[in-house]
Specification:
globular, mainly alpha, 2% strand, two-stranded antiparallel ribbon, single chain
Length: 273
């Protein structure tokens, strides 16, 4: 029995979409992986002429590249911690209290992402010079903090809002204090959403390049900002190795929270009313 033409067309379209997705998603990753271990690669060979690990030795042996890795691994957790301290109380307030201008403030959180970033960073530069924050870790932390506010406010706010108040009231009726109810009931149930927000904030800070370069260069360079120098001054194999290293934290963290992301915690954060 022949399949209907429409079913064949749908199946063909699905396969075509899968192939295109495979090429554009996995293609660059395969290219990076091959160049990271390729010694020479001449046209028209489909595979490298020879393989080597010397590009990895170049990355780990270069002091400037090693410093950028250390800076990223040092600054990004600081940014996430500061973002949590600043944003989580605001997230709880947005979730549990009605106050004048609440919706306006919620919408205003997107203002940091509603305009071209470089224009915003250039505007901040004059203030940074006046405050002496240029070429300082504190200045880089503040710049990277701007990209984390949305994630560390909206997603945790939705998580706090989803906690049933009946459970909190039951704990209070049982004699628990407000602090104990918050830490044992509210915070515990909202923790998956907070974790997703923290991971998204980490990725936003870790991958931020424009503002970090404007504020930190030439003294403080992170892995994304160091990519500018790699592309211009190093062999492409070194850039490929560094790109893989840059992607590892993102992949590891997303795999760690995939259950919550796939479960809708990320989407729920942006449905907060």
């Amino acid at each position: 029995m022949q399949r209907p033409v429409s079913a064949v067309l749908r199946a063909s379209g699905a396969w075509l979409f899968a192939i295109v997705l495979l090429v554009f998603v996995l293609g660059p990753l395969v290219w990076l992986g091959a160049h990271a271990f390729a010694d020479t690669w001449t046209y028209p060979h489909l595979l490298p002429d020879s393989w080597t690990l010397r590009w990895w030795a170049t990355v780990f042996g270069d002091p400037s590249l090693g410093a950028s890795i250390q800076n990223s691994l040092l600054i990004t957790p600081i940014v996430v911690l500061v973002s949590a301290v600043v944003c989580l109380p605001a997230a709880y307030a947005f979730a549990r209290f009605e106050f004048p201008g609440r919706r306006l403030f919620l919408i205003g959180l997107f203002a940091t992402n509603a305009f071209p970033r470089m224009g915003l960073f250039a505007t901040l530069a004059s203030l940074y010079y006046a405050l002496g924050l240029m070429n300082t870790i504190a200045g880089v932390v503040v710049v990277q903090l701007l990209g984390t506010i949305v994630f560390m406010t909206w997603i945790p706010a939705a998580a706090f809002s989803a906690v049933p108040r009946s459970l909190e009231e039951a704990a209070r009726d049982a004699g628990a204090s407000r602090a104990r109810v918050f830490f044992t009931v509210t915070l515990r149930m909202a923790l998956p959403g907070i974790l997703v927000g923290a991971v998204m904030a980490f990725l936003a800070a870790f991958d931020e390049a424009q503002g970090t370069y404007l504020v930190g260069a030439p003294d403080i360079l992170t892995m994304p900002t160091e990519m500018y120098s790699l592309v211009l001054n190093f062999p492409k194999q070194v850039a490929a190795v560094f790109s893989i290293l840059l992607a590892i934290p993102s992949v590891v963290l997303l795999l760690a929270v995939r259950k919550h992301v796939m479960g809708g915690q990320l989407a729920e954060g942006f449905q907060l009313k």
